[in-house]
Amino acid sequence: MPIHRRRLLLASTATLALPAFAQSAFPNKPLKLLIAFPAGGPTDITMRALADNASKILGQTVVIENKPGAGGTLPAQQLQTSPADGYTLAQIPLGVFRLPYTTKLNWDPVTDISYVLNVTGYAFGLVVPADSPLRTWTHFVGWAKANPGMLSYGSTGTLTSPHLTMELIAQKLGLQLLHVPYKGSADLMQSILGGQIMAAADSTGFAPQVAAGKLRVLNTWGEQRLEKFPDAPTLKELGLDLVQNSPFGIGAPKGTPAAVVKRLHDAFKQAMEQDSYKTALARYDMVPKYLSSAAYTQFAKETFAKEKALVEKLGLLKAQ
Questions:
Q1: C-alpha closest to that of 243 among 232, 234, 231, 253
Q2: Using one digit for the tens of pLDDT, what is the confidence trace for 213-226?
Q3: Does pTM surpass 0.90?
């Protein structure tokens, strides 16, 4: 082979090898995982367990950074100004998909996020203090009807799934409730235990307080009763044709290289399968719910369309 052809072949081989080498080197520094709710709540505790597992698999620390507020949408918003290199990741709660219908945005939650994988989902319910006179859902509804606008309930933020579901229930039953938003489950639990609100609509972050005899569950919102709260009826059992589940996963900035997304996907999927993560989830009646990058992207598209119908039904759709 002529020398000049050999040189060209060697040069082209080296050029092709560079991206593969760069990809195999990922990650070579700590990663940041943005969480949508405060420290100490169920999201924080379970995602820290997942991050610890992923850190061992990736060979780099996955640092949790809490970004509470704005209905759980701040991490997704921060992705829009983060480098597309895989080192900044974000939890993507369901509220992200309804954000454009209630707030003016210059980005699209379907096309402007690289979806890595779905990891779990929240189970929801409504709780009251253990010594509350509202001992059942019948008492709750009766008191609310007799005292319009006076029955206060807290949620993990305006336009979150607990808030919108309670508003949908109120609409169906003709109730006027007083909504009090909080930044996350930890703040919400402090408030209801402190007597500042009468009820709390939340993910099952309330489970430890129920187990301690401080709170009582009036209902849960899944297809079936939760194993941890077998005496609490579902909304469907109470005559409300409603089921609220709230899957969430991990996203990266738009344009993150496919090889990097795959590396992250594989590491976090393996992290999901470890007992330490399953144990952390079980504390809050949560289970692993895996969706691949492709399936999670499709879920984002479908959910975006569904959330518009819910926001519209509640009269919260912003003027176009």
A1: 234
A2: 999 999 999 989 99
A3: no
